[in-house]
Amino acid sequence: MDPEKASQLRSAVVWTVVLTAVHFALGTRTHTVHGLHIALAGLFMVPIIIAAVAMERRGALAAAAAISGIYLLHLLLNWRNSPMSNPDQFAWPVVYVVVGLTAGQLVHTANYRKWQRDEVISKSQRTEMVQGLTGLLTALGVRDAATLAHSRRVAAIAVRVGEHMGLDRGAVSNLRLAGLVHDIGKAGVPDDILFKDGRLSEEQTVVMRSHVDLAVSMLRAIPGTDAIARIVSQHHECPDGSGYPRGLRADAIDPAASILRVADVYAALTEPRPYHTPADTNTAIAAMSALSGSKIDATAFAALRVVVGHAAASDIFESESTPALKEVNA
Ligand SMILES: [Fe+2]
Q1: What's the pLDDT score for residue 318?
Q2: Pairwise CA distance, residues 326 & 330, whole Å
Q3: CA–centroid distance for 215 within its chain
Q4: Tell me, what's the pLDDT at 65?
Q5: Residues 57-92: pLDDT tens digits?
Q6: Ligand 1 centre and the CA of 198: distance in Å?
Q7: Is 294:239 a contact under the CB 8 Å cutoff?
Q8: What gap in Å lies between CA 148 and CA 181, rounded to an integer?
Q9: 235 C-alpha to center of ligand 1: Å?
């Protein structure tokens, strides 16, 4: 339970216990005491209103019912034979329930209006964010249409894997956006490296790998992209710590980034590249099996296998036999 609600409920319980104790302790002998009892009966509305604030109609009704029970017990036990007993006192439980229902309904309406306002604000912020990302993607498409096409495919695969793994709607939506922009930093990689046909030299590999940090700094310019930037920043990290740029290990890698990585690797293997012909599904899955748990997350890979409809049978392909895998991590 929300800590603020829990504290409000605790406060309602404390009010109820204290008022009950004073009611039972006061006795019923004098007119002054009778007057105090009337005031205390009115104060029982305080915990009912607090419960309404904490849990709307449900909380208010529960508090009104409990306090009505306590109050009736007090009347029957303490006031039954008193000359000052007053049938009007039996009206209090009705007042408690009416006050509870009214307060609960008012709080419910106020909370609903606040939720509606928050929804409108968060939708417009998200729309602005998506517009910013679309601008970045357009720039990437102008510079490198192949990477944009790859990114769209990665996003589609990652979404299906995320849905299969039971991610909620918000997480799947972030995963889709992260998939679309994961290689946006390649727009900042020089032509002779980005479009090189052969293998990259060591220095060129360092420059190519900077696309991750470049992407994160581009995303930083767009408000609301923190979660997406986090996923993008880890899409080349490996469970065994051999990835880049930070060499994070499995427990420090965001599960969404692990999903993005398996989608990225699968997409790269099954797409034509200057340095390899596209693998079919079976070959790609078999090659990825060799990397499961070390270079790619085992859980995300298991989900990918189901999603691509392949019950991978074997590790018959050693990772060395698929040199393209080395390129995937470039
Ligand atoms: Fe990348």
Answers
A1: 32
A2: 7
A3: 22
A4: 94
A5: 999 999 999 999 998 888 888 777 666 566 667 788
A6: 18
A7: yes
A8: 8
A9: 7
The pTM of this model reads 0.68
DSSP 118: H
Separation of CA 138 and ligand 1 centre (Å): 17
Give the three-state DSSP class for 324.
helix
Write down the residue that tokens 């020089």 correspond to. 190
Quote the ligand 1 centre to 58 CA distance (angstroms).
50
Instruction: Give the integer Cα–Cα distance in Å for 202 and 8.
Output: 61
Q: How far is the CA of 183 from the centre of ligand 1 (A)?
A: 5
Residues of the chain with pLDDT under 50: 311-330
3-state SS class at 311: coil
What is d(CA 297, CA 259) in angstroms, rounded to the nearest whole number?
A: 8
Does residue 175 sit in helix, strand or coil? helix
Tokens for 264, please give them: 């990225």
Complete domains list, the chain, with CATH: 3-116 (no CATH), 144-328 (1.10.3210.10)
What element of type H or E holds 191?
helix 191-194
